[in-house]
Write a structure and sequence with these properties.
The complex is a heterodimer.
Chain A (H helix, E strand, L loop, with lengths): L3 H17 L3 H4 L3 E5 L5 H4 L7 E5 L2 E2 L3 H10 L11 E7 L2 E7 L6 E4 L6 E2 L1 H4 L1 E8 L6 H17 L5 E7 L5 E7 L4 H9 L4 E5 L2 E5 L4 E4 L7 E8 L2 E12 L1 H12 L15 E5 L2 E6 L12 E10 L2 H21 L6 E9 L1 H30 L2 H24 L3 E2 L1 H25 L7 H23 L11 H30 L1
Parallel strand pairs in A: 7-20
Antiparallel strand pairs in A: 1-2, 1-6, 2-3, 2-4, 4-5, 8-10, 8-19, 9-10, 11-12, 11-16, 13-15, 14-15, 15-18, 16-17
Chain B lengths: L1 H14 L1 H21 L4 E2 L1 H4 L1 E7 L4 H9 L6 E7 L6 E8 L3 H12 L8 E6 L1 H30 L2 H25 L2 E2 L1 H13 L1 H13 L5 H28 L6 H35 L4
Parallel strand pairs in B: 1-6
Antiparallel strand pairs in B: 2-4, 2-5, 3-4
Helix pairs in contact in B: 2-7, 2-11, 4-5, 6-7, 6-8, 7-8, 7-9, 7-11, 8-11, 9-10, 9-11, 10-11
Classes of the chains: A alpha+beta, B alpha+beta.
């Protein structure tokens, strides 16, 4: 009747397999939307992250290369429509049509065939651990910081970023940023500049980013790339977008402009310009039309430019600059000066090599242990049961990792292997107890084995728990996978193994 | 069989001297190391602050070493990573306490090309964070040792046998530490994490021994010890076989991974002595004193 233990193992294995190899992945084609910037034309058309793009303007997309070719060719004829270029995207969730004159803010990724994700050290990417300078942030300050940073990262064009707060044993709060594919300079830019935006006339600040801005127009006809011109080193493209000031800021502007005279050379403008400063650097100077003298006006058109060696590059750069500026205007400056205390960039090339080597190593270890067990016990069935248990533990642990979207890094994999090692130890205890010559029932023998196994289990858990906090949780992976593996062992595979053993013995 | 038991009865106290001397020597070595360096171990840049740069490809080291050794004398380490099967060099690793923006231009000049996120990896840890890491991992190690001790006392509820297990666990940490210091290995954060695991992992055989001897009614103390030994040595053997390949063969693995396995291998090795010469002696002595048959 105790066969339910084997059933539980079987069911756990099936679920784990389904989590690791999701069946839907086998039949799907297309690319999934990983990131999309809010308030862009494509966003307003209804496209969202997670949707699966099947075609763009009736061209099939099945690979990143195809996607890039299609998207790059969209703007080759920028001037062909006033509304911008028509884009028709068909996704699994429906068809979306919109007009745009900006580089698409959509970042796509191929559909993953397996449900597992590898960590930064194996898949490549960048990671930064950040703290406030000379200050320990409270939890609410930290969540503000994270909110601003994620809003910014989106606008800065840093995609696929995870931002979370981590606490260490001594109560210090950190912000952890992890990005696949970004460069460290992107991350430094994101947190290195506070992003103080000011509009000044003369040396009077009329408005600054954040609190003085009530709205930033990110899409629509007035927002986007205005046009491009040939310059010496290639092309330069200008962008512009309207913003709305709050009443107070508009009033301040009116007060300042009312005292200005007309420009002697250009009489349709006022004598001083509106200077836009980003982190105290002059970014652009805008003429103020003479009609605005002393007027309370909340609408302002912000402009700027980006350049590149080709038109495509210039459009890309201008769009990037525009998004960045819009983001800073919306979010305001960061409330604290930050410092980067850890910054890692891992090349994806080496990660692949590491992953391959880890798999080979795991295979070698697996074979060695199987052989040792066979040499010791000389029984095919028992060896088979041990192998089955080892495989089950690895598979179920990986299934759980897939379920909780844990990124498997090298320490996590070390944890799984070490956890399997303790698993084998437990099985040896079970085998030896069950074949002992003691004059007691097999059930009693297995019960004895379990008292040892539980002891070993609890000491290991006790030893690993402090790791969840030490070192800002950066090494949590090892503790987590070890604990999962040994827990899977004690809850699922060990009882099933004992049952299998009982059947073999009888 | 009978004679071997008698031999064990006569000599078990003497055998305890071996692991005990090993522990004392290790303690002296680590203590001496501490008094000389001000620390219990050599820390790598993840614990002392600095930069690790990994450059992909089969790169000529002599050239680089020549170019960089002068400027960063004594503060730079070069390492090669090779593929497991082909043994072809796949990358080189450079460690220094300098900041990335400092060392990168020098490397680029020596290499003749620039380092990108495609052809290289850069890991930088600020010295504030690394000393923080180190201190906290130390605290975590002490905490995990205390928690493990609590579990052991709870399991056996007898003072001397519990203490014997905890003492063995202590030795399982100190001996590998001395070996690592002796070998001059620079330990990373991951390496220290392995010590935490060792705290929980190495006591498995001690728990097995103590449970079998104290809780099982059959046979003599010696026969129970012998049966525990047969099981325990098999456990240690499989565990060692699981971690040793990473230790010997492989250089093409993430350093964190290698360090974890290195520490586990040393600890599990030390544990064979500590369990089967020291803990076993204490428990046998305890049984004789308490007249446990």
């Amino acid at each position: 009747m105790a066969s339910y233990r084997i059933w539980i193992l079987g069911i756990a294995l099936v679920i784990a397999a389904l989590l690791i190899f999701p069946p839907r992945a086998l039949f799907e084609t297309g690319l999934s939307i990983q990131e999309i910037t809010k308030n862009t034309s494509e966003f307003n058309a209804g496209l969202r992250t997670g949707m699966i793009i099947q075609s763009i303007n009736n061209q099939q997309v099945t690979s990143l290369e195809e996607y890039n070719t299609i998207v790059d060719s969209l703007f080759l004829n920028l001037e062909n429509s006033e509304k911008g270029v028509k884009v028709n995207i068909i996704t699994k969730s429906g068809e979306f049509i919109f007009y745009t004159n900006q580089e698409l803010s959509i970042i796509v990724k191929p559909l993953s065939k397996i449900g597992l994700k590898t960590g930064l050290d194996l898949s490549g990417g960048a990671r930064a651990l950040i703290k406030a300078q000379d200050k320990t942030l409270s939890d609410s300050e930290m969540s503000d910081l994270i909110a601003i940073t994620s809003e910014r990262s989106n606008g800065f064009g840093i995609k696929d970023i995870t931002i979370k707060s981590v606490k260490d044993l001594e109560g210090e709060n950190y912000m952890l940023l992890e990005v696949a594919g970004a460069t460290p300079s992107d991350l430094e830019e994101l947190v290195g500049s506070q992003g103080k935006f000011e509009g000044k006339i003369g040396n009077i600040t009329v408005f600054s980013g954040g609190q003085d801005i009530s709205h930033v127009e990110r899409s629509g006809q007035q927002s986007g790339i205005e046009g491009c011109t040939q310059v010496e080193s290639g092309e330069a493209c200008r962008f512009r977008f309207p913003i709305s000031l709050t009443e107070e800021a508009a009033q301040r502007q009116a007060d300042v402009t009312s005292s200005l005279s007309l420009d002697s050379e250009n009489p349709q403008y006022l004598s001083q310009k509106l200077d836009l400063y980003l982190d105290d650097n002059l970014m652009d100077s805008l003429y103020i039309s003479k009609d605005l003298k002393g007027q309370v006006t909340t609408q302002i058109l912000i402009s700027g430019s980006g350049s590149g060696t080709s038109r495509q590059e210039a459009i890309k750069e201008a769009t990037k600059q525009m998004n960045k500026l819009q983001t800073i205007l919306i979010t305001g400056s960061l409330p604290f000066k930050l410092e980067i205390v850890k910054l890692d960039t891992i090349s994806p090339v080496l990660g692949k090599e590491f992953t391959k080597n880890l798999l080979i190593l795991a295979g070698v270890v697996f074979i060695i242990i199987s052989l040792t067990i066979f040499i010791r016990y000389r029984k095919i069935k028992i060896t088979g049961a041990v192998i089955l248990t080892m495989l089950s533990e690895a598979l179920i642990t990986l299934g759980i990792a897939a379920l909780i979207s844990w990124n498997l890094d090298a320490p996590s994999i070390a944890g799984i292997i070490a956890g399997m090692g303790t698993g084998v130890d437990d099985q040896i205890v079970l085998i030896d107890e069950s074949v002992s010559k003691a004059q007691i029932s097999l059930k009693e023998k297995i019960k004895r084995a379990f008292s040892i196994i539980f002891g070993a289990f609890f000491t290991l858990i006790a030893a690993m728990i402090p790791l969840f906090w030490a070192g800002a949780g950066m090494l949590k992976g090892f503790a987590l996978t070890t604990i999962i593996t040994v827990t899977v062992g004690i809850v699922v595979t060990r009882p099933a193994f004992a049952e299998i053993l009982r059947r073999i013995q009888e | 069989m009978e004679t071997s038991k008698n031999w064990f009865d006569r000599n078990y106290k003497f055998l305890m001297i071996i692991p005990f001397v090993l522990l004392v020597l290790s303690l002296v070595y680590v203590g001496n190391f501490y008094s000389k360096t001000g620390d219990f171990l050599n820390k790598d840049v993840s614990l002392s602050g600095g930069t690790t740069i990994t450059i992909n490809g089969d790169i000529d080291l002599t050239n680089l070493e020549e170019a960089l050794n002068e400027k960063y004398f004594g503060d730079i380490i070069f390492r090669k990573l090779t593929d497991i099967r082909s043994e072809k060099a796949i990358a080189i690793v450079i460690e220094t306490s300098a900041k990335p923006e400092q060392i990168k231009p020098d490397i680029e000049q020596a290499l003749g090309y620039s380092l990108t996120s495609e052809n290289s990896s850069t890991e930088f840890t600020d010295s504030f964070l690394s000393s923080n890491f180190y201190r906290q991992l130390g605290i975590a190690l002490i905490l995990s040792f205390i928690l493990m001790s609590v579990v052991i006392f709870f399991l056996f509820r007898t003072f001397i046998p519990s203490l014997a297990v905890i003492f063995a666990a202590f030795s399982d940490i100190v001996v590998p530490l001395a070996v690592i210091d002796y070998l001059g290995i620079k330990l990373s954060a991951a390496g220290i994490v392995a010590f935490l695991m060792l705290v929980g992992y190495s006591v498995d055989t001690d728990i097995l021994l103590t449970s079998r001897v104290l809780k099982k009614p059959e046979g003599t103390v010696n026969s129970r010890i012998y049966s525990a030994f047969k099981t325990g040595i098999m456990m240690s053997l499989t565990s060692l076989l699981a971690v040793l390949p990473a230790f010997f063969i492989v250089t093409g693995l993430p350093d964190s991974f290698r360090q974890i396995f290195l520490v586990l291998a040393l600890g599990l090795g030390a544990d064979i002595f500590n369990t089967w010469l020291m803990n076993v002696g204490i428990i046998k002595w305890y049984c004789e004193r308490k007249n446990i048959q």
